[in-house]
What does this fold into?
Amino acid sequence: MNEYIKYGQLDADQEKFNLLENSAEKQNIKWCQENNLSFLAYSAIAQGLLTGTINPDSKYAADDIRSMNPLYKRETIIKINEMINSSFIPIAKKYNCSLTQLAIAAVSSKQNVIALCGARNSKEAIENAKAGDILISDDDLGKLDDIVKSFLDN
It folds into this structure.
């Protein structure tokens, strides 16, 4: 990003960032925090994977981006759903929120990070917006990070 600012003003960085796909945290987000820029995180719910609603037997057309995403392999979806059921649901219950809201709130909890959320209807838009009212404790954020790290390491 230092190269970008040689040529003009940089107001924000937009990258994929969610609990499962979090590689931007160490470089891009850190840089944005250090330089007081916004980081716009798209795919906060990992294309639905963090909602717990993806069926492992779902089939995607060849031109659907999910068909090319290794996280959408049947065995991986099964593991993600197991992780969600065993570890994420208890945390969501603690905050009286949906899994979608938990995932969005976790992303938004990072300094300078704004979660960009899509919605197919007004119900989803309202659910997503309510995530802004959820303040997850540092302890629970650490638990979520640890849970995902353990999942990704296996």
The mean pLDDT is 94. The CA atoms of residues 87 and 147 lie 7 Å apart.
